[in-house]
UniProtKB/TrEMBL annotation:
Region (Disordered): 31-50
Lineage: Eukaryota, Metazoa, Chordata, Craniata, Vertebrata
Keywords attached to this entry: ATP-binding, Cytoplasm, Kinase, Nucleotide-binding, Phosphoprotein, SH2 domain, SH3 domain, Transferase, Tyrosine-protein kinase
Family that this chain belongs to: Belongs to the protein kinase superfamily. Tyr protein kinase family.
The protein's Enzyme Commission number: 2.7.10.2
Protein name per its UniProtKB record: Tyrosine-protein kinase
Broad EC category: transferase
């Protein structure tokens, strides 16, 4: 009935708008026939998009009179959006006066900045969707407060954000060749006129536009915290206790590794504290943190990308299997160096294993995932959960009683040494987790791998002392492994 009457009795369009409003906010208020016309969708978390790149704004330096239908007449001071460059001309859309497009000589234009909009109290150029919500819901702003900002999810468009009682609604303002619109069919030459129309006809969007947002200083943003839209996930690299690891691009150009945290398994309330620890650590043998996305879900932890993947998989590859004992020992030295740094800062890894050491193109090794095991929920990371706890790498006191320390990390390092010298072989092969714990408690220790030097195996056994106090410190292990590497390397050259 609505489309029929609108089509046949167009002169009553104002009346139809009162009966059948056609705009809808992004929270899906029922009863609106055309929700797609105005809602600004939330950018998808799993498919991050690049940040918006606004069109170039120009200002006319001189009057120009069109000489043919393809050209656009402009007056000095007119503002225009440059849509496309065509030789010595700019195909532009005029913002002031009647909306129109056409070619204007480049010599008649000067680049202007979008900040001319900031003369208006309702325009906020450097604010995100989340920031707009936080600002509009602050005590200084009442229901009916609004602002316009650049759209995060659509290049060159804008968003109208309005406070409606205890929530904020966002409306997409789309940019077309001949104007701006919030609802299809209602074009405006600029934001000022669009806003004036919806102030007078606010029932079309079911939200009064009473006064511009009162600006206030938002809390200082953490320099590490970045929006998910800056990261594009390209290829899944693996999956572990903490989540999935993806190869991605940061801002479309910088290769990174993105760990997507499994919220169902993690104590997210403690995540911010753990991330603060990650930010404070900096060493060439630890994976470098680039950024975090901890506001909302899923949580991203973004680090440098190590192209050869984790050490366990690399050692099992044809390239890894071709390496001799000196290079294997160099891997052990590098890991011991990184763990010695964590030891100095009294940080317990809790899940040290070859799968959590990453390898770069230059065969540099870096320890990853330090401290994240602390965030696993108790029913996930406990002896009763069976396969979830990495029993074969875990010291007996940690597996049985959840007593973690630098010395339990030393036990795990001994198992990592076994992995290195067996080219990534699973320790205690053929035994279940329960059987492994039983055998280790009775005194069983892994045998010496064929390629492992005797002095290195002696260090493994020291790492596996039943009493934690008898196990060596990582600084001691680093010195002894470095000395062994110096002795071994000349003999194999």
């Amino acid at each position: 009935m609505d489309p029929f009457l609108r089509k046949r009795l167009t002169f009553l369009s104002f009346f139809w708008d009162k009966i059948w409003p056609v705009a809808a906010p992004d929270d899906g208020v029922p009863g609106f026939p055309d929700p797609a016309a105005s809602a600004e969708p939330e950018p998808p978390a799993t498919e991050p998009c690049s940040p918006p790149v606004p069109m170039q704004l120009f200002q006319a330096l001189y009057d120009f009179r069109a000489r043919c239908s393809a050209e656009l007449s402009v007056s000095r001071g007119d503002r225009l959006y440059g849509l496309k460059e065509e030789g010595d001309y700019i195909f532009a859309r005029r913002l002031s006066g009647p909306p129109s497009t056409g070619l204007v000589p480049i010599t008649h234009l000067a680049k202007a900045t979008p900040e001319t909009l900031s003369d208006h109290p309702w325009y906020f150029s450097g604010i995100s969707r989340a920031g707009a919500q936080q600002l509009l819901l602050s005590p200084a702003n009442a229901p009916g407060t609004f602002l316009i900002r650049p759209s995060e999810s659509s290049h060159g468009d804008y968003s109208l954000s309005v406070r409606a009682q205890a929530k904020v609604r966002h409306y997409r303002i789309s940019t077309a060749a001949d104007g701006l619109y919030l609802q299809k069919g209602r074009l405006f030459p600029n934001l000022e006129e669009l806003l004036a129309y919806y102030k007078a006809n606010w029932k079309l969007i079911r939200n009064p536009l009473l006064q511009p947002c009162v600006p206030q200083k938002l809390p200082q943003q953490d320099e590490w915290e970045r929006p998910r839209s800056e990261f594009a996930l390209r290829r899944k690299l693996g999956e572990g206790y903490f989540g999935e690891v993806w190869e991605g691009l940061w801002l479309g150009s910088t290769p990174v590794a993105v760990k997507v945290i499994k919220s169902a398994y993690m104590k997210l309330a403690d995540l911010s504290k753990e991330i603060q620890t990650l930010k404070s650590l900096k060493h060439e043998r630890l994976i470098r943190l680039h950024a975090v996305c901890s506001e909302g879900q899923p949580v991203y932890i973004v680090t440098e990308l190590m192209r050869k993947g984790n050490l366990q998989a690399f050692l099992g590859s044809p390239e890894g299997r071709a390496l001799g004992p000196p290079l294997l020992l160099s891997f052990a030295c590098q890991v011991a160096e990184g763990m010695s740094y964590l030891e100095d800062r009294r940080i317990v890894h809790r899940d040290l294993a070859a799968r959590n050491v990453l390898v770069g193109d230059d065969l540099a090794c870096k320890v990853a995932d330090f401290g994240l095991a602390r965030l696993l929920k108790d029913d996930i990371y406990s002896p009763s959960s069976g396969s979830k706890i990495p029993v074969k790498w875990t010291a007996p006191e940690a597996a049985n009683y959840r007593i973690y320390s630098q010395k339990s990390d030393v036990w795990s390092f001994g198992v990592l040494l076994y992995e290195v010298f067996t080219y990534g072989q699973c320790p205690y092969e053929g035994l279940s987790n329960h059987e492994t714990l039983q055998q280790v408690t009775r005194g069983y220790r892994l045998p010496r791998p064929a390629s492992c030097p005797a002095e290195v195996y002696t260090l493994m056994l020291e790492c596996w002392k039943g009493s934690p106090e008898e196990r060596p410190a990582f600084t001691t292990l680093q010195k002894k492994l470095s000395a062994a590497h110096r002795r071994l390397a000349p003999a194999h050259t």
